[in-house]
Specification:
11 strands; four-stranded antiparallel beta sheet; 1 helix
């Protein structure tokens, strides 16, 4: 049995009565905005934010598995599908934002995203669906 706690950009856990740092989110994430457990409580969607961007990552704490960062992954996939320039900035900001994050089942998360391209001259509003176990992302 373990408990999770968040503090700025770090997830802490208590396991076997010992407090330990579980995961530290890399820059540019400044703090954790929200943690959303899957219906079966085995996965956690973690939303982190910076001054200019939002990010989502799914974590399976029991197995110690982290999924890819979903917002930038969706931005790159959508940009390739629509032939938009998808530069990756050196500060890793994406100027993209998310809304309406919801688990569809124990393994599938869906969210709306405003994805930025060409230095925010183009904003594309999409719906992203991601299946954690199959590593399948759909961007519409």
């Amino acid at each position: 049995m373990f408990l999770l706690y968040r503090l700025l950009d770090v997830i802490w856990r208590i396991k076997d009565d010992v407090l330990e740092e579980y995961y530290h989110f890399p820059a540019p994430s400044l703090y954790i905005r929200k943690m959303i457990p899957s219906p079966d409580q085995k996965l956690i969607a973690v939303v982190t934010v910076s001054n200019k961007s939002e990010f989502i990552q799914i974590i399976n704490v029991e197995e110690g598995i982290n999924g890819p960062e979903l917002v930038e992954s969706a931005r790159i996939k959508n940009g390739a599908q629509k032939e938009l320039e998808t530069w990756i900035r050196t500060d890793h900001e994406n100027y993209s934002y998310v809304n309406n994050i919801a688990w569809k089942d124990d393994n599938t998360i869906q969210f709306e995203a405003s994805l930025a391209y060409e230095d925010t001259e183009v904003i594309d509003n999409v719906t992203v669906t991601y299946q954690f176990s199959n590593k399948v992302m759909e961007v519409k």
